[in-house]
């Protein structure tokens, strides 16, 4: 059976037609970014690719191809024994490598010889990435957003979770970015995705939404940690209707101490992050905060951070960046409890229904 090819532009809209998407690149290439849902079947693994590349340059291409063929055949055989022997005749895989060349071609040829209907992405991951970048702006602009605004600690992320639990469409950019979007937002033990991976995660989330329904999203800045929100998405968010979530200061402090419990457990890590504010808030202020944390006064420091750093910055950002914020739907949380968040989520969904119905 011949190997079929599909352009990356067409593959973008036809992923659901394939039973398995197979990334034939190395483990490291796959980790950096991959087609959403792809499994990694390296034709050459990380170490083998280095060996073959070195041989290609230092010996000659012919010897490198011979050695590469032997390694590839061994790896492909292992993939088949592990993952293909139980596949039915009508199994349809989509295969790609970096540029749609030897690595994916070798795997596709063998699978096709078995009798499977195999499709290759023309141009491989490189073409896929270009097609995704080209498709992302129109996809982001096609959806209707409601932006959950509110000062730090007001429960925006928790409200998104409450909305999602009640069936609303939610885009959680901080979850996709593995970061809580502030100078203190790094989550210990959770590295952020690459920019390419973040773009893919955003695209994959957006394509799953019903364009006839509202998508709830938090009021983010252009960057969430080290990754940048796609420009078209940010532009649409900043022009979208807003929700103004409010919570009393003492509840905000308690909420942050819960959400950032790792800082409470490790005061030295908290102090290290506070030092990043020295340029903005001055050495004297930051040194004072560090001293209080070291003496067990972390709640006091959190409150000062809110009033002196986060709240003023938030107010300026909202006024400058979100054009619909002056007309935001006010939402006052009684407290930080799941019950209070659930009640507000129900009210928000109920208030949005007529707007959704009329587009």
Q: What can you tell me about this protein's structure?
A:
The protein has 359 residues and is α/β, with parallel strands linked by helices. The chain contains 17 helices and twelve strands. The longest helix has 24 residues, at 61-84. The chain has a five-stranded parallel β-sheet with strand order 1-5-4-2-3. The protein starts with a strand and ends with a helix. Residues 354-359 have low confidence and may be disordered.
Q: Could you give the topology of this structure?
A:
Elements: E1 4-6, H1 8-14, E2 20-23, H2 27-32, E3 39-40, H3 46-58, H4 61-84, E4 93-96, H5 102-114, E5 119-121, H6 124-141, E6 144-149, H7 156-165, E7 169-171, H8 173-177, H9 195-207, E8 214-218, E9 223-224, E10 227-228, H10 231-238, E11 242-246, H11 249-259, H12 261-265, H13 267-274, H14 278-281, H15 283-294, H16 298-321, E12 329-332, H17 338-357
Parallel strand pairs: 1-5, 2-3, 2-4, 4-5, 6-8, 6-11, 7-8, 11-12
Antiparallel strand pairs: 9-10
Helix pairs in contact: 1-6, 3-4, 4-5, 6-9, 6-10, 7-17, 11-16, 13-15, 15-16
């Amino acid at each position: 059976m011949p190997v079929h090819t599909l352009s990356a532009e067409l593959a973008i809209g036809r992923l659901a037609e394939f039973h398995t998407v197979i990334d034939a690149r190395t483990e490291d290439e796959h980790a950096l970014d991959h087609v959403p849902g792809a499994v990694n079947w390296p034709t050459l693994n990380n170490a083998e690719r280095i060996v073959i590349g070195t041989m290609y340059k230092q010996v000659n291409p012919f010897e490198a191809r011979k050695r590469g063929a032997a390694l590839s055949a061994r790896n492909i055989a292992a993939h088949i024994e592990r993952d293909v022997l139980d596949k039915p005749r009508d199994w349809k895989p989509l295969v790609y490598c970096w540029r749609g060349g030897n690595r994916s071609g070798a795997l596709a040829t063998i699978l096709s010889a078995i009798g499977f209907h195999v499709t290759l992405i023309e141009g491989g991951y490189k073409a896929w990435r270009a097609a995704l970048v080209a498709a992302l702006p129109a996809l982001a602009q096609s959806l209707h957003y409601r932006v959950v605004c509110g000062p730090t600690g007001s429960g925006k992320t928790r409200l998104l979770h409450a909305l999602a639990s009640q069936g609303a469409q939610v885009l959680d950019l901080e979850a996709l970015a593995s970061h809580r979007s502030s100078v203190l937002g790094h989550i210990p033990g959770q590295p952020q995705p690459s920019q390419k991976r973040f773009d893919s995660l955003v695209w994959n989330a957006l394509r799953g939404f019903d364009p006839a329904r509202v998508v709830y999203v938090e009021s983010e800045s252009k960057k969430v940690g080290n990754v940048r929100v796609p420009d078209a998405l940010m532009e649409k968010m900043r022009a979208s209707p807003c929700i103004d979530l409010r919570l009393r200061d003492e509840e905000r402090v308690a909420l942050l101490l819960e959400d950032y419990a790792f800082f409470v457990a490790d005061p030295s890590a908290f102090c290290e992050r506070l030092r990043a504010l020295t340029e903005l808030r001055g050495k004297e202020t930051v040194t004072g905060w560090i001293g209080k944390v070291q003496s067990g006064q972390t709640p006091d420091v959190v409150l000062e951070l809110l009033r002196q750093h986060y709240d003023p910055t938030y107010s300026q950002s909202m006024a400058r960046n979100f054009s619909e914020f002056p007309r935001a739907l006010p939402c006052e949380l009684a407290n930080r409890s799941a019950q209070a968040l659930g009640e507000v989520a129900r009210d928000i969904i109920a208030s949005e229904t007529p707007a959704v119905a009329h587009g």
